[in-house]
Amino acid sequence: xxxxxxxxxxxxxxxxxxxxxxxxxxxxxxxxxxxxxxxxxxxxxxxxxxxxxxxxxxxxxxxxxxxxxxxxxxxxxxxxxxxxxxxxxxxxxxxxxxxxxxxxxxxxxxxxxxxxxxxxxxxxxxxxxxxxxxxxxxxxxxxxxxxxxxxxxxxxxxxxxxxxxxxxxxxxxxxxxxxxxxxxxxxxxxxxxxxxxxxxxxxxxxxxxxxxxxxxxxxxxxxxxxxxxxxxxxxxxxxxxxxxxxxxxxxxxxxxxxxxxxxxxxxxxxxxxxxxxxxxxxxxxxxxxxxxxxxxxxxxxxxxxxxxxxxxxxxxxxxxxxxxxxxxxxxxxxxxxxxxxxxxxxxxxxxxxxxxxxxxxxxxxxxxxxxxxxxxxxxxxxxxxxxxxxxxxxxxxxxxxxxxxxxxxxxxxxxxxxxxxxxxxxxxxxxxxxxxxxxxxxxxxxxxxxxxxxxxxxxxxxxxxxxxxxxxxxxxxxxxxxxxxxxxxxxxxxxxxxxxxxxxxxxxxxxxxxxxxxxxxxxxxxxxxxxxxxxxxxxxxxxxxxxxxxxxxxxxxxxxxxxxxxxxxxxxxxxxxxxxxxxxxxxxxxxxxxxxxxxxxxxxxxxxxxxxxxxxxxxxxxxxxxxxxxxxxxxxxxxxxxxxxxxxxxxxxxxxxxxxxxxxxxxxxxxxxxxxxxxxxxxxxxxxxxx
Amino acid sequence: xxxxxxxxxxxxxxxxxxxxxxxxxxxxxxxxxxxxxxxxxxxxxxxxxxxxxxxxxxxxxxxxxxxxxxxxxxxxxxxxxxxxxxxxxxxxxxxxxxxxxxxxxxxxxxxxxxxxxxxxxxxxxxxxxxxxxxxxxxxxxxxxxxxxxxxxxxxxxxxxxxxxxxxxxxxxxxxxxxxxxxxxxxxxxxxxxxxxxxxxxxxxxxxxxxxxxxxxxxxxxxxxxxxxxxxxxxxxxxxxxxxxxxxxxxxxxxxxxxxxxxxxxxxxxxxxxxxxxx
Lengths: 691, 278
Known about the structure:
The structure holds two protein chains of two kinds. Among the domains of chain A are: 56 residues; 356 residues, DD-peptidase/beta-lactamase superfamily (Beta-lactamase, 3-Layer(aba) Sandwich). The radius of gyration of chain A is 39 Å and the shape is elongated. In chain A, 43% of the residues lie in helices and 20% in strands. By secondary structure, chain A is α+β, with helices and mostly antiparallel strands. In chain A, the strands form eight sheets. In chain A, strands 2, 3, 6, 7, 12, 20 and 21 form a seven-stranded mixed beta sheet that branches. In chain A, strands 14-13-25-24-23 form a five-stranded antiparallel beta sheet, sandwiched between helices. A three-stranded antiparallel beta sheet of chain A has the order 1-10-11, with no helix packed on it. The mean pLDDT of chain A is 86. By secondary structure, chain B is α+β, with helices and mostly antiparallel strands. A six-stranded antiparallel beta barrel of chain B has the order 1-2-5-4-3-12. A six-stranded antiparallel barrel of chain B has the order 6-7-8-11-10-9. In chain B, a hairpin with a 7-residue loop joins strand 10 and strand 11. In chain B, helix 2 packs across helix 3. At the A-B interface, helix 1, helix 2, strand 3, helix 9 and strand 7 of A face strand 6, strand 7 and strand 8 of B.
């Protein structure tokens, strides 16, 4: 029994072992199978599709980027560069899910970095809240709307002390650590406010700073893990080279934001964004659409922090046209030098009518055969780069200066022409048959014309003809012939010679005004009296012309009566190399050649006859010059010197160049003739050396 | 028999003989015991010679293998030296060009003032290339975040994360990497970035090349002196392609790094962080 039991026990034991073994094998097979499955998956994950999965694990987003088109360069007529572009770096930001504390810490680091490299940044908060005085620069409503966390808070903040508002922003809105000083906190707030008002998304990042140093870019790029959300990009920035002499012609560029409201409709339609800069004056403004080019588009891959992973060009940008001006930069500089120098000289000059207040002026030189403006100077001038740098202190200084520094006096300054108008009156008189070239007119010291008694500053000149009258600038002669010609005839011929209307120059210009019946009626609501014609005949009364109108007029006298369209752009060059030359256009003044000849003769006498008003200045000049001086009284007579003008063309027998000079409070017209002389001298010397 | 072997005297005498023999063999040459050895060794000497010859042979062949190993090491070292020399030659070229020998030599020396530590790569992220990988040294070895990583060929990357015994390195082909670089020939500053597409081929993108700078294929790129992380003058690679997009102002180039990111075993970490006390 026991044996049997033992046996079966042993059997059982054996069976049990076998059982365990079998189980063990089954388990082993299962485990091995599992391992194989896992291994297969692992291989699949890591090796076969590893790269793919890695790529998808790094979250990236495809979005569109901008390739900024290169703005066209601007050159003088000989190809000397005036405006171009350089590469600059910008910083943009994409919101990441950092805590307030982390964000503030990062911004503090960024501020230190920017400071260290002397870089500036955009700040809307600064324009609203003045930190140094703790006051609001503008109505606080917009700010409160943004920073108030609840309607209740907003209500309280509207009436709270600025200090309370600051404290609220610091502690509540932006949660800035008390460890920072108020100033540090304010600067952090400047960035936080920017991020608050313009949410920065991957497809529309927030522009933080423009044109920062390479040092800042280096740190932001290399240490990008310390500045999550920040990235850099490059774009062309406008650059002016030695442009102070040509500032008013060139103009400058400004932030579209400042002009956005005015043209809120046009700019977005033309594809501008609020961060863009546009030409706001001069050629930069006038040829904005030719210069700007068309931005391109990239398809870019960015990670969640806005960092560029890769990109490809989707639409290539189209650079703007290069502009070649008609200006000769050397002549331009000579004109400015001479103008500035002679204004000093005039101011110091001893003369009974000199109030020593000359301080501004303009010079325009034009090719009488084409209408090309060879030089256009306005004084005082400025460095247009100031506007590019966004240096607001200097910009405000320039804009608010009592001398109106940024005004282009050559195009927008309207001056009574004084005696420079006399050739026009002579043309009107000759054309209407009031006088013939050799007609002699009695010019006593005193005479009654048109109901008023007039005196001749030149004294009793007795019987003189037109040539002598122009040479000596006889007022009495022109009172007489003007009166006889009549204002309507004078106005007709003034209009024929371009006065009272725009010349058509590319950049902004003033129409000026023309002394006429309509003008007096319109602006003074008064009827014309005969004595008005006498005043108008010597370039006074309501006559006010721009230097560019004057130069166009004198050029026309020089070339025999053609009014070319004054222009500053000689040619435009497409990025493809295609050249678009400016078409030379002119209008005929319809003046008779005999008339022109008689007037020319008189103007030659101004600079060449014994008693010519400018003969002293041109006596050694190698070319014969035809000119006319002008001294125009202003409304401030008695406390201010008169405005002084000089117009001329040369060489007198085969004219090439016409010059108009105006010096505000320049005392006597003849005082400004040396400026024209310097311009002519430089022009002919340059021409010589070029040959 | 049993008694003899069992007797205490026999055991004692055997032990004494054995001790004597041991003493004789181990005694110095001039010792009196030497006689005993001589007597004993004389008949054994042919046998011993044979043994010695065999052992010499074995020793020789062992030495032969050992020498091969040293030769190989030497060879590797020489290769490394050649690479280094090539690198230095490039630097010399630059020095000549800049004509600022003294200053350059100083900065050149500066490059070697930082302590370095050699590391082995112990893990890498999936993919064929060493974009991000782990090395066998960590904070215990004085490695800090942002320390530059190089090998004999040039710049590898920087340390992105440090643990006690290991560190994570982000290479220059990774999209997280940006390096302030300089064109060796023209000295212009540029930014070298990892590119999501180019990294697959072990290449980098060179951004911000100003339009007035003429670069050509084959131009060398090195770390600039302006970098906030990398010492000056470490070779990065050479330009293999220039991409001037139509109408774009600045342009970019594709750089083939001097380091082969397909095969990377050992790297050197320059302990910049430790020196700056970061």
